[in-house]
What we know:
Layout: H1 17-36, H2 44-70, H3 78-87, H4 90-95
Amino acid sequence: MTAVLPPELPPLPALTRAEGELIDRYLDVVDLLGRINPVHHGDTYRGLRAAQALVTRAAELRDALALMHQRGETELHGPTLTRALRVLDGERRTARVIVPPRSDS
């Protein structure tokens, strides 16, 4: 019997260490905001725990951006960072943050 492997993900684009840290911390924040989003079913304790963790993750995101700036990385390269976010499932993860479209049914 042959094992079915999941499809191979495309490789991450070349990122500086600071850009990689920025992407990781950004997705951490997005994941927590998705857990806090009141349009999703859940209990208040889950949202409270995510909000408490958000403080730390937001500081880490700030630090990643500050480090980039200190190193002279003063521009964000949108197309490259977009590719990285897509490889890391950023579209699905950020979708949890938005308010769903209105359904007229």
